[in-house]
From TrEMBL:
This is NGG1p interacting factor 3. Keywords: Metal-binding. SUPFAM superfamilies: NIF3 (NGG1p interacting factor 3)-like. One of its GO terms (cellular component) is mitochondrion. A divalent metal cation binds at residues 59, 97, 241, 245. One of its GO terms (molecular function) is metal ion binding. InterPro entries: DUF34/NIF3 (IPR002678), DUF34/NIF3_sf (IPR036069). Belongs to the GTP cyclohydrolase I type 2/NIF3 family. It comes from Mollisia scopiformis (Conifer needle endophyte fungus). It comes from the Eukaryota.
Length: 306
């Protein structure tokens, strides 16, 4: 993780990244990794059943100083169980957001048609991309890292086209939230021309508010932040906080880590990991991890099967 998403890229003003739980060695465990956005009880159960040796949780489960560890607290309960089993926990969080080729670049690739499986549209190379807030004092080789992205189209693209790209790229089945200026008549919203997009995974308000772009694309904005944006003539697309992040684990992070470990093995590092490790499920993405919210339609509610 340190080679691909160095901790120094993380926003230390609020974030808590790195090795959050260093568990004692247990010989019964596999040399395997479980990737997840959130470390919930269900994910902890999954890792214990799989006998993983480490969980890489994008969101840090320990976010503020703790005065005690008790079984009554559900998150602390999971950490205590994982420690007992010998399963460590690492969180990269905003280091992944800031890295070139990281989470925000993945979202930028989606709105520029560069991250589809069998895309129906060709690549759209006539765009520029920049960082909203550069990392201060970046490490050598990470000079272009930073938080958030701005994508600018040379030729404006209709809002409806961008929404379709996001739904396909994030594999959204249940819908998403779109806000547009109230002066735009019904039936014409999808035709709004977009020349620039501000992008931030997760909760983007603090980074995107006041940005001079046509569209804000993030996981979530508050009610008042969205109102302020459309009053300024902007559009907003939100897809739920962790839904803006989860697909990255499968499509990018698992692959990046596999390549990094295989490369390191060839250089003599990780000598204790079997050579066929990558073919034997060395890195897996959690099946239990999911956004806490579901979108319910009237059809679902009337059916009563939920």
């Amino acid at each position: 993780m340190a080679h691909r998403y160095p901790e120094k890229l993380a926003d230390s003003s609020f974030d808590n990244t790195g090795l959050l739980l260093e568990a004692p060695y247990r010989p019964h465990l596999n040399n395997s990794v479980l990737l997840t956005v959130d470390l919930t009880k269900a994910v902890a159960d999954e890792a214990i059943a799989r006998k993983d040796s480490i969980i890489i949780a994008y969101h840090p489960i320990i976010f503020r100083p703790l005065k005690s560890f008790t079984l009554a607290n559900t998150q602390q309960n999971s950490l205590l169980r994982l420690a007992q089993e010998g399963i460590s926990v690492y969180s990269p969080h905003t280091a992944v957001d800031a890295a070139v080729g990281g989470l925000n670049d993945w979202l930028a690739d989606i709105v520029t048609c560069k991250d589809y499986e069998n895309p129906s549209e060709g690549q759209e190379p006539q765009t520029t991309r920049s960082v909203i807030t550069p990392v201060k004092d970046p490490l050598q080789g990470f000079e272009q890292a930073g938080y958030g992205r701005i994508v600018k189209y040379q030729t404006p693209v209709e809002l409806g086209t961008i929404v379709q790209r996001i739904m396909r790229g994030l594999k959204i089945q249940d819908g998403m939230s779109v806000a547009t200026p109230q002066a735009v008549p019904a039936g014409q919203k999808s035709q709004i021309k977009i020349s620039s997009i501000g992008i931030c995974a997760g909760s983007g308000g603090s980074l995107l508010n006041g940005l001079d772009v046509d569209l804000l694309f993030t996981g979530e904005l508050s009610h008042h932040e969205a109102l302020a944006a459309i009053e300024q003539g902007k559009c907003v697309v939100t897809v739920f906080h962790s839904n803006s992040e989860r697909g990255f684990l499968n499509q990018r992070m698992a692959v990046d880590l596999m390549i990094a470990i295989n490369h390191s093995q060839s250089d003599g590092e990780f000598a204790d990991i079997p050579k066929n490790w990558s073919q034997t499920g060395g890195i897996a993405v959690s099946q239990a991890d999911r956004d806490p919210y579901s979108v319910f339609s009237k059809t679902v509610l009337d059916g009563g099967q939920w």
